[in-house]
Amino acid sequence: MDLIGHIKHNRAKQRQKKPIKTDVFNQISAIVRQYGLKESFLDIFDTVGDQFSAENLNLLRIRVKTPVVRSIFSLVAKEEYDFIMSIIHQADTPYLEFAHSPEEILLCKSLYRLNPAISREKLRRYHFETLFLHERVKRNRMETNRK
Amino acid sequence: MKPLFDSGLELVVESDFIYFPLLFDPDIEKEIQTVFHSGENTGQSNEPESKTVIKLEEKYFIKGFRLDALVKNYDVIDPYSYQTMKNECFRRYQLMREVDGMIVDGTLRTILFQVMPHFIKKNKGLKRKKLSDEEILDLVGQKIDIPESYFQEAKTFTDIAPLKEILKNIGNQTGTLELPENGLTSGRKLQDWFRSAVHAKVLADEVERITKSLQVRQQFSRIKPEHIATLLYIADAGALEIDGFGFIRKNADRKEYHVYKHSGDYVLKDYYGRNYLFPDCRVAVSTYMPSKPFVMEKYKHPFLLEYKSGQEICLKHFNPTDEMTTQRIIDTLEEGLTALRYGYDHRRRNGYHSLDKLWVHIPTIDFDDYLI
What we know:
The structure holds two protein chains of two kinds.
Chain A: H1 3-15, H2 24-35, H3 41-53, H4 78-90, H5 102-114, H6 120-125, H7 128-146
Helix pairs in contact in A: 2-4, 5-7
Chain B: H1 2-6, E1 10-14, E2 17-21, H2 26-38, E3 53-56, E4 59-66, H3 67-77, H4 79-92, H5 99-104, H6 106-119, H7 133-143, H8 148-158, H9 161-173, E5 183-186, H10 187-205, H11 207-220, H12 225-237, E6 239-242, E7 245-251, E8 256-262, E9 266-269, E10 275-278, E11 282-286, E12 294-295, E13 311-312, H13 326-342
Antiparallel strand pairs in B: 1-2, 1-5, 2-4, 3-4, 6-7, 7-8, 8-11, 9-10, 11-12, 12-13
Helix pairs in contact in B: 3-4, 3-10, 4-10, 6-13, 7-12, 8-12, 9-11
């Protein structure tokens, strides 16, 4: 490719529409606003691990991801900002940006512990509970096979 | 501005500027940390205008706009809201009424105190004479049921102390606006200040009018309160009708009124001596551009070209002038009434139309339905 062609190609690339990058803060802020989450939500984080480990793994249910109404960028008051940042710190995993509901936020850590290499596509597409149950079944089978 | 003041946000006033609570995202937080740790925006600068973000009680506030500029330009920023506040201010100080302008407005004075007495005669027999201004107002009071609220307003109207106070305050202010104190404030408090500031601006703009109002009200202080109530009512309604004579305001800005007199029912005779009963109508003249008298209603008559409302009456020896005088209005009305009642000559069949059917094949106005 000659120089002119190269410049043209670069410019065309620059002009291309780029999808808005998902931002954890923006995503969590949208969920907080949509579900009207309060400070008490942070207290659930400590108990959620036990609850899921005790859950019946034979339960078969497919959950659908609920859409989140996201703004292009999110600006919030200081109190809300602190609350959102606390949620982000509590559920600090790369999966958090794919959460679509408070329930998925709570499942983030558990899911990441089970399998830290789930593809972005899967995370974007399936509800974290479905993925969590799937991963648990997978792990149990592996353990049974090993025995 | 209302949503902002009603939002319940904590606001800060600092060096004539209003500061709003700073909204956060991770980037802004980083920026704020950098700025406040490096001491770029510690507030130690001698120029308060340089502080873009200030920290008060562990909260951050960002610079908005100058409060005095907001007050000064509010009429352009939000004309509708400004007009509402202006009206509210006028209402508060009873400056809405046209009565202030009535003394200055010669048209209404002329109609009420000079034209009206000509057409309404209270005294009969040998004592018959023109009504005085006070008698006119008494008569209006007797004939019209004036709501009680106007009597209450009349009391407020005659109290000139608030207007004197306003003028004094405006004089003291000499163009400077007292801004709210620096520091944290609530939206409600700021709204109260803002309303007072806009009112002060409105009053300052209207200082000439207030001075005139004061003069007018000082003159009115010698008038009976019930007469003031009557005038307030007339100014509000813009129309009045007593004993077949009346007027109606058509355009307040141009001070245009239509002064009218009812013709009453009357009979005209045709060529063959048959009688036609004509219904009542209002013969009127405009004060804005006095010309020929006209009939306000949809009406037909040999002296009216068509069968519709607002038609000028055909008058042969009538020279309209632009000058609006009492005599001119009286003459025009009387000319019009006389023409309708007595102007038609059944022998000559004068006017646009004939009462009896003269031309069978030429379309004309038909008066057969008035035949008695």
